[in-house]
Amino acid sequence: KLVESGGGEVQAGASLRLSCVASGFIMGYYNIGWFRRAPGKEREGVSCISKDGKTKYGDSVRGRFTISRDNAKNTVYLQMNNLKPEDTAVYYCAAVYSRRDMCTMSPSSSWGQGTQVTVSA
Hints:
- The protein is mainly β.
- The chain has strands spanning 2-5, 8-11, 16-22, 31-37, 44-49, 55-57, 65-70, 75-80, 89-99, 102-107, 115-120.
- The protein contains no helices and eleven strands.
- The model has no long low-confidence stretch (mean pLDDT 95).
């Protein structure tokens, strides 16, 4: 089970750090991704991190968001800086498939409750 937290309501330009905590399994054995679903839109991949720490980002967040993992805490983080109103969405984490030793934005686990991020102009 993966549980997301850290969302909130902020103004444009602010920062938030999301956490994804695993329970019942060792997160270090898995590639993990962050996804988001904005109102009226399809869920999209935001970022992913491989078991060995390699990272990938979506074009809309590259340079502003940073994904990291702390296997000792069974947690993956998403540091979000310079937030924009278009980042408003429910954010989810999930295990993801890998391809050629690199994580993909293709989820392999079920979705949790997510955490709401709202960015006002």
